[in-house]
Design goal:
Number of helices: 24
Strand order of the largest sheet: 1-2
Distance between the termini: 104 Å
InterPro entries: TPR-like_helical_dom_sf (IPR011990), TPR_rpt (IPR019734)
Largest sheet: 2 strands, antiparallel
Keywords: TPR repeat
Shape: rod-shaped
Strand content: under 5%
């Protein structure tokens, strides 16, 4: 009883204020053509009662005054509709039986429809914003109902078509959740889901959107969007090509569109597809750089297109003035020339350039050692001259171990393997060589080394 009396007193005080200074303004502001002045005062009175009850979470006290407003004063204020949404969300979530829940949900959806009818042109919360709220309510409360999901999906489309870049993250996330659910229920194609997802991903990765949130909040939004995709059944990579056909030709895409498509295709594990290759090359055409050329070279190696890979490494080397980056490209080109093209002389040349540009890096020396060791059988000369190649190979492995701790373990293994192939003492003596003596390995290798016995 005490609570009810204090509530009634609070309402009386608030209404007294409305009839005073604030009330004068309210009466002037709200004078519907369908109401007399007396009716208008009644509407304002009921609004104050409903709003105060809601603030105190006295939902049963709020529902009567609110229903009066909804029926008799639908054009009173935006506040009436936001209060109504809060009120009936509570009733939906606390309903004791399914019949009551459905009735409350119907009222909640009707609130959104009426708000569009009377306040769809509101500056801050226009029609599109309301559609987004209605769609989210449907997804939240009727996720298992196909027809409700379809209605929610339509609401999200209407929201985005009207709000564009101002569409809220929660709406975008609910949109792709609805789209994904419709695919799972067989009412949506995979292509449509991808179209929706690309639209949303494009929206949230745009600079304007990123700059609207602090880094932590933005990362949470991005993670939520990516999680939806990761929980989706693996896409057919050919669907991306179909989707792109409906949007544009690859050669007409701008760099932002390309980035969005590429990132989504990477999430779908479709980076080995021909379309992905076309997108990467198109991106390079728009904005060529050493890094992009190097990325293309690596991609073509993965695809087995070694000639194109070699060409892009050459372009990468032409475009960079950074010694470290250039060293990496020379090294990778050396690996390609040696491993695929079997051009060991050229491979040796590129590996040495990499080493000269990045003296503390051990990998070029590991590669040189391997090139020399494998060349032994093809070197012209006698038994000693062929075996002497292993001296040069081990020299490179020792250099790798000395320069780069990261290469020590691998270098040591190679030294253990190839030192077994050194010439023996008898062979060296036969050719007039003593241990520790300088020797120049012949043929194209032409490297000075030191005589060592097996």
């Amino acid at each position: 009883m005490k609570s009810s009396r204090s509530f009634a007193a609070a309402v009386g005080l608030l209404f007294f204020m409305l009839l005073g200074g604030i009330g004068t303004l309210s009466q002037k502001t709200y004078a519907s053509v369908n109401h007399s002045e007396k009716d208008s005062i009644k509407c304002l009175q009921q609004l104050s009662v409903a709003s105060l009850a809601l603030e105190k979470e006295m939902f049963k006290h709020a529902v009567g005054p609110w229903r009066f407003l909804f029926k008799n004063c639908p054009d009173l204020s935006v506040r009436m509709y936001s209060d109504g949404a809060k009120l009936f969300k509570h009733f939906v979530e606390s309903a004791k039986d399914e019949q009551s829940r459905e009735a409350y949900l119907d009222t909640l959806l009707m609130i959104y429809d009426k708000r569009i009818e009377y306040f769809g042109d509101h500056n801050k919360y226009p029609e599109g914003w309301i559609y987004g709220r209605k769609g989210m309510a449907l997804v939240r409360y009727e996720r298992k109902n196909v027809n409700a999901l379809k209605e929610a999906y339509e609401c999200f489309q209407k929201c985005y078509s009207r709000m564009g870049v101002k569409t809220e993250p929660a709406v975008m996330i609910s949109w792709i959740q609805a789209s994904r659910a419709l695919v799972q229920k067989g009412d949506h194609s995979e292509e449509q889901f991808l179209r929706d997802y690309v639209t949303v991903y494009d929206h949230i990765t745009a600079d304007g959107f990123k700059n609207s949130y602090n880094e932590r909040v933005y990362e949470r939004i991005l993670l939520a969007v990516k999680k939806i995709f990761n929980r989706t059944e693996k896409c057919n990579c050919e669907t991306f090509a179909k989707l792109l056909e409906t949007k544009s030709d690859v050669n007409e895409l701008d760099s932002n569109d390309i980035n969005v498509f590429m990132e989504v295709m990477e999430m779908a594990e479709c980076s080995d597809s021909e379309l992905y290759t076309q997108l990467v090359e198109r991106k390079y055409e728009i904005k060529p750089s050493a890094e992009a050329a190097g990325g293309l070279a690596r991609m073509f190696i993965k695809h087995g297109d070694f000639d194109r890979a070699a060409n892009y490494y050459s372009e990468a080397l032409e475009k960079t003035v950074n010694d470290s980056l250039k060293a990496v490209f020379y090294y990778e080109l050396a690996v390609l020339k040696d491993g695929h093209f079997k051009e060991e002389v050229e491979a040796r040349q590129y590996a040495k350039r990499a080493s000269a540009l990045l003296p503390g890096w051990g990998k070029p020396h590991l590669l040189l050692g391997s090139i020399y060791a494998r060349a032994s059988v093809r070197i012209e000369g006698n038994e000693l001259e062929k075996s002497a190649v292993y001296w040069a190979a081990v020299d490179q492995f020792m250099m790798a171990m000395k320069k780069d701790a990261k290469c020590s373990e691998e270098a040591r293994k190679q030294i253990d393997v190839y030192s077994q192939y050194f010439p023996d003492k008898q062979t060296c003596f036969f050719h007039g060589l003593d241990e520790g003596q300088e020797f120049v390995v012949g043929d194209w290798i032409n490297e000075p080394t030191t005589v060592r016995f097996r």
